[in-house]
Amino acid sequence: MTSGFAVAVGAILAIALTAVLYLLSSVLVLLVLALFLGLGLDPVVRRLQGFGLSRAWGVCVVAFLFVVLVAGILIFIVPATVQQIKHLIDAAPETIESFTQTSWFRAVQTTVGGNSDDTANRIWTSIFDLSSFLTVSGGVLKAGLSTLGAISNAVIVIVLTLYFVVSLDSFKQALVSLLPKYKRARFSALTDEVTASVGGVVAGGVTLSTINALVVFAINIVLGSPIAVLMMLVAFFVTLVPLMGSLLFLVIGSMASLVVSPTACLVFAVTYLIYIQIEAYAVTPKIMGRAVAVPGVLVIIGAIAGATLMGLLGALVAIPITASVLIILRKVVIPAQDAKSSPTESPKRRWMVKTYS
After folding, report:
1. Which of 174, 187, 190, 157 is nearest to 41 (CA)?
2. CB count, 10 Å around CB of 303?
3. Of residues 173, 176, 264, 275, the one with CA closest to residue 223
4. What is the pLDDT of residue 164?
5. Over the stretch 38-50, which tens digit does the pLDDT of each residue have?
6. Residue 191: per-residue pLDDT
7. Residue 326: which H helix or E strand, with range?
8. Among residues 229, 228, 225, which one has the least CA distance to residue 73?
C-alpha cells in the first residue's frame, strides 16, 4: 500500500513539474538564450585579457560595446527598416501591376488561360474584401502585440546577457564548489572547455550571420533594391540557424528581389548561391575552426526540434545545446567507455553466480 501510494505521489509530482516547466518554457528559453549570448561574449573578454586588461575592465569594455551596438541598431537600423516596410507596402500596387505585365507572366497566362488584368483585379478585390480586411486587421493587431512582446523579451535578454557576462566566473566557481574536492579539478577543466567551445560556436555563428547580412546588403544595393536594410536585417536573423538558414534566405531574398525586376531576382539568386558556397568552404572553416565541430545532421535535427518546440528562439538555442552535449560525450562518456578494457560483472550478478553454483 505504501509503495503504491509513493508511486502515485511521484507520478503526480512528475506531471506537476512537467506542467510548470511547460508554463515557464518561454522564460527558460530567454534565460538559456541570454546565457549563450553571454558565453558568446566571453571569448571577447578573454581576448581583451590577453592584451593586458583585467577581467573587470574587459567586462566593462565588452558591456559598453554591446550597449552601443544595441543602441546603434535601435537608432539607425530600426527606423530605416520601418521606412522600407512602409515603402514596400506603398509600392505593392505598382509592383503587382508591373509583375503582371512582364512578358514571361503573360506567356504563363496565355499557356494556362486567363488575362493579367483580371488577375490583378482579383488580387485587389480579395485584398479589399471585408472579410479579408478583418482578417488582415486582426493579423496586424496580433503582430503589434507580438512586437511589444518581442521588445520586452529583447530588453530582458540584453539585461540578462550583461549579467551573465559579469558573473560567469562566479557562476562556474559556485557550481564547482558543490562537488567533492577530488572531482573539482577535472570538472572545472571540463566546464572551462564547454563554456569556451559553446562561446566559440555562438560568437562564430553571430560573425557568420553578420558577414552574410553585409553581403546581402551589398547585393541589394547593387541591384537598386529599395528594401536593402530590411533584407539585411532578415538575413542576419534567418542565417543564425546554420545550414538551413542560408538556403531559406535564398528563397526569401530571391522573392524580395522581384520588387526590382525578375532579372534582379535571377541575379540575386545566382550571386547569393555563389556566396553560400564560398561561405561553406572558405569562410566557415576559418571562423568556426576553434569551436567544436557539430555534424550537419545533428545541426539539422537540433534546429528542427528546437523550432518545433520554441520557434526561432528554440532553433537558435538548440545548436549550442547540441555542441555542449557533444563535448560532454567526447570528454566524459567516450573516455569512460574506452577505459573499460574488459567486461565487468555487477555485484548483483556475482552474488547470483555464487548463490546458485
Report:
1. 157
2. 23
3. 264
4. 85
5. 888 888 888 888 8
6. 83
7. helix 296-328
8. 229
Cβ atoms within 10 Å of 45's Cβ, excluding its own: 25
The whole-number average pLDDT for the span 156-179 is 85
Residue pLDDT, tens place only, 303-318? 778 777 777 677 777 7
Rounded Cα distance, 51 and 118, in Å: 68
Query: In the numeric block, which cell numbers belong to residue 188?
Result: 572545472
pTM across the whole model = 0.71
If one counts every other C-beta atom within 10 angstroms of the C-beta of residue 280, the result is 12
DSSP 8-state class, residue 243: T
Contacts of 158 (CB under 8 A, 6+ apart): 66, 70
DSSP string, 116-145: HHHHHHHHHHHHHSHHHHHHHHHHHHHHHH
Contacts of 241 (CB under 8 A, 6+ apart): 248, 303, 307, 312, 315, 316, 319
| pLDDT single digits (tens) 211-221 | 999 999 999 99
- 10 Å Cβ neighbour count for 91? 14
Q: How many CA atoms lie within 13 A of 153 on its CB side?
A: 15
